[in-house]
Amino acid sequence: MFSLHRVATVLFALVSFTSIYIVYTIIYNVFIHPFRSVPGPKLYAISRFPWIKDWLSGNIHVSVQAMHEKYGDMVRVAPDEISCIRAEAWAEVYGHKGSKAFTRDFKWYARLTEGQDDIIVSTEADHSRFRKAFSASFSDKALKENEGIIMRNVALLVSRLQKHVRAGNDVADMIKWYNWCTFDVIGDLVYGSSFACLEKEEYHPWLGVVLQNIKLSSYGALMERYPAFKWLVNVLVPKSMLEMRNMHIGIIRSKIESRSEKQSTRRDVIADVSDTGDLTQGELEANLALITMAGSETSATALSAISYYLCRNESAFVEVKEEVRSTLRSEADITWDRVSELPYLAACIKEALRLYPPTPVGLPRRLMSDGTTVCGQYVPKNNVVYITQYSAYRSELNFLDAKSFRPERWLGDPKFESDQRDVFQPFIVGPYSCPGKSLAYMEISLVITKIVWTFDWALADEGSLAFENEKVYALWQKNPLNLKLSERPVR
Ligand code: HEM
């Protein structure tokens, strides 16, 4: 029989042990840990909870930026985690040199397909094999072939918008339209047929579920860190999201089937990968799911950002319209060869990616080898370092007038000579960098040129001003961006 005395003794022991553990952890983190001299708020150095609070509130990007503004280019954002905003850190952490020691932090990255590795979550050997299998799809030759596919979808985007404007429905939520367009493009490129979002003017169920649940998926990423609480995901996350994990496999399989029924002769990603014979069926499906998401949401974010910043910056908007509408003589001139030679447009795209990077938070890298240094700071094994793009690009340490949209900084204006342009890496660098970079630039440039060629626009409501202050749950949680479109006068 337990006596009251015994229960009290056990409780006392437990409380004492926990208290000693907490006090020891605080003393260790603040005074002994090799990151003890890295500046940052003490509470964040003591425990991970403040970071978790910021993460769950969708304000991690704002909070880390405030830390960099107060403490400088290297800050301690959690006991074992540093955010850095110096250009050298790209090579040291993400580049070929860094990747020998740093790997993606699998306490943060979650698999898109349950139980199946993909190019993002995989061992080093599998990652190289997956990259090799997809290399033909991201080659220059493939890029050239993809132009026609992109143009077909862009033409549909513009004709649908024109139809609405001509019918008097001149306000369009461009978040929706750009998501539909980039999702259709990726469907066409990967599976040989689009998802018909533009045609039906509705979200494909797969895309719809993913976008509605960006916030909840980021909770899932948190649970990778605390596996004991994984059951919480099942309670918090709606059934639709959990079902989505399996639903996308069904969609991919039916796309593959309808593709082989049509006996298409056109190259697509599936054909390229099948030729290598290097992937199992499960690996193929998981990677197709990953590319479908990685290749559409990011580009749609970039397109929305460019549209937003242009109409918020009158002189830049006037200049880009002038460049597009006078350099190109007719719509037939809207080709990648011609559009890639429009310097002001390219500068506007870069500037929008700088102020609104599609991956705004730090993509964490964990040191798996013995200790090393990053920007002169010693990093012990099993600790995490990253560059936080949102903070790096909005810091006056890196860019003059950092929070303003100034395309001329990319065009050799001497005023911006001191800008640290090397820190700007929206597609990151090294062996894990984005293989879709050239494709993304081509797609974004063609869409924006065609939109600028056809329409003038302005923000349609005050609510859309919130665009710049959206929450971030790993990705931007975007609310409607309503633009009032008008067809430009026929010349
Ligand atoms: C503006 C558009 C885009 C941006 C800013 C972007 C950015 C990025 C970034 C930062 C990463 C690294 C992720 C990490 O390490 O956690 C990445 C990876 C990746 N991206 Fe993109 N991306 C864009 C468009 C695309 C497109 C169009 C595709 C394909 C059609 C694509 C396919 C991929 C793939 C497959 C990976 C994984 C690479 C690997 O692990 O080796 N992305 N992207």
UniProtKB/TrEMBL annotation:
By its UniProt entry, which InterPro entries does this protein fall under?
A: Cyt_P450 (IPR001128), Cyt_P450_E_grp-I (IPR002401), Cyt_P450_sf (IPR036396), Cytochrome_P450_monoxygenase (IPR050121)
- State if Transmembrane helix is listed as a keyword: yes
State its cofactor: heme
Q: Enumerate the UniProt keywords alphabetically.
A: Heme, Iron, Membrane, Metal-binding, Transmembrane, Transmembrane helix
- Residue ranges spanning the membrane: these are 7-31
Q: Where does heme bind?
A: C434
Secretion signal, residue range per the UniProt entry:
none
What CDD domains does its record include?
Answer: CYP60B-like (cd11058)
Molecular-function GO terms, alphabetical: heme binding; iron ion binding; monooxygenase activity; oxidoreductase activity, acting on paired donors, with incorporation or reduction of molecular oxygen
Protein family membership: Belongs to the cytochrome P450 family.
UniProt protein name: Cytochrome P450
Q: Which organism is it from?
A: Decorospora gaudefroyi
